[in-house]
Amino acid sequence: MDRPIVIENSRLVDPATGRDEPGALIVENKRIAGIVSGAAPGAPQGAERIDAKGLMLCPGLVDLRVFTGEPGHEYRETLTSAADAAAAGGVTTFLLMPDTEPVIDETALVDYVIRRARDISKIRIYPAAAISKGLRGEEIAEFGLLKEAGARAFTDGRASIASAGLFRAALTYAKNFDMPVIHHVADASLTGDGVMNAGAFATIRGLKGIPIVAETVPLDRDLQLAMATGARYHAAQISTAASAEIMRRALTASDRVSCGVSINNLALNENDIGSYRTFFKLAPPLRHEDDRRAMVEALADGTISTIHSAHDPQDSETKRRPFAEAADGAIGLETLLAVALRLHHSGEVPLMTILKALTCAPADLIGLAAGRLRKGDKADLILLDLDAPWVVTEAAIRSRSRNTCFEGARLTGKVMRTFVSGRTVYDAAS
After folding, report:
1. How far apart are CA 272 and CA 293, in angstroms?
2. In angstroms, how far is CA 65 from the centroid of its own chain?
3. What is the reported pLDDT for 185?
4. Positive or negative: CA dihedral 205, 207, 213, 218
């Protein structure tokens, strides 16, 4: 049996309820046993007492879009290395995308990920299963069996399903099992061979652009199909002001649709690409500053409900190429929270809104009892120093890959300790 824990002298912050007050939290048998305002009561016999020294105590983060190399490309990232990176960033749960080799489109693969994560990971890893077999967009996977095996959502990861008929069938099928469909909105016929946001900057750089309609056309289609079928639909990540407006209209008509945003599209714009810096080649691409600001506003007003890292490790061979030939993607588990806190420190988005989009909102989307300070829930927690300054350095990155957009970035807000089921899985002091 694990020793009981009392975390005292903390600032308790629970975005699910709006709680923000000094207090203490008691952990017994791996779960939250009590939450009290003010001073801690007497500790259970044999308890470990942790003095938070005024640090914020809040739920661990839930990240809905994480790619790894395992199975198939472990040299990029293993479940173990991804879990280490996640714990350091305060992420206690993440949803694994099915873009592996082989693709997570069969029950055996779902079972493999669940068992493997349980055996070797210090955090919670849940698999998302593919919408279409082999991510080819041609035939729907066996949703019922995949749900039974433990899949938490259906998605084609980096791929977008072109066929409206197939996607409508997938939404109908998913609705029968009350499972969310998380879809990457990018029309390949409109994206073409574009490699960055279409506009003046792309022209100056001599690069082919990706137009805004490559995102808005499939988004509009998806929302119409979702409302026609009554399915639970989540646009994985939007990046343009026009997409935010489409979502606002849809939200007035249905409470079963939602959307997320990558931390990259909240924090960066197309100018960050600079002189063809391939770590900034992403999907969706970094957009104009007006679009970035629109993403911030959409988060603040509730149009965007979740923020994710879009953690996508790539090796040097796929990134050290001419910009147009380099692979898309950047890592982000370790910097997700600190970069999001920039919006709090600048006064652009309330702290509770940011934390909600990183904790209870994504947990609710995939049906997890997580992301809350609630008696009886598993004690997945973080101690956060909101004002601690730090610099992102390649040497300190725990991910097996190094393709971060934030190398050398000066950030404010650092995870000091991460708990999963009450056990410390990361301690900044050690």
Report:
1. 15
2. 4
3. 98
4. negative
Characterize 390-418 residue by residue with b for buried, 16 or more Cβ atoms within 10 angstroms of its Cβ, and e for exposed.
bebeeeebbbbbbbbbbeebebebbbbbb
Secondary structure (3-state) at 352: helix
What is d(CA 312, CA 283) in angstroms, rounded to the nearest whole number? 10
DSSP-derived 3-state class of residue 348: coil
Strand partners, 308: 262
Place of tokens 């409508």: 168
Task: With a cut of 70, list the residues of the chain below it in pLDDT.
Answer: 1
pLDDT at 218: 98
Helix boundaries (H) for 20-142: 79-88, 107-120
Helices (H), 239-350: 241-251, 263-267, 289-300, 316-319, 336-345
Burial class (CB in 10 A: 0-12, 13-18, 19+), 347: exposed
- Residue 165: phi and psi, rounded to 5, are -65, -45
pLDDT of amino acid 310: 98
CA dist 231 → 170, 171, 247, 279 (Å): 9, 6, 16, 36
Task: Give the predicted TM-score (pTM) of the model.
Answer: 0.97
Residues 6+ apart with CB under 8 A from 205: 196, 273, 276, 323
* Residue 97 DSSP code: P
Closest alpha carbon to 287 in 190, 197, 184? 197
Integer Cα distance of 248 and 301 in angstroms: 10
Residue 250, CA distances (Å) to 179, 259, 360 in order? 19, 11, 22
* Residue pair 285/195 in contact by the 8 Å Cβ criterion: yes
Helices 241-251 & 289-300 angle (0-180, nearest 10): 20
Q: Could you say which DSSP state residue 279 is in?
A: G
The residue written with tokens 């997700």 in the block is 336
Contact 420, 123 (CB under 8 A): yes
What is the number of alpha carbons within 13 Å of residue 184 lying toward its C-beta? 26
Residue 346 identity (one-letter amino acid): S
Residue ranges in 206-288 assigned as alpha helix (H): 213-229, 241-251, 263-267
Predicted local confidence at residue 99, as pLDDT: 97
Per-residue pLDDT at 1: 59
223 vs 231: CA distance, rounded Å:
10
395, two tokens: 């040497």
β-strands 5-14, 48-51: how paired?
Answer: parallel
How many CA atoms are closer than 13 Å to the CA of 288, on its beta-carbon side? 15
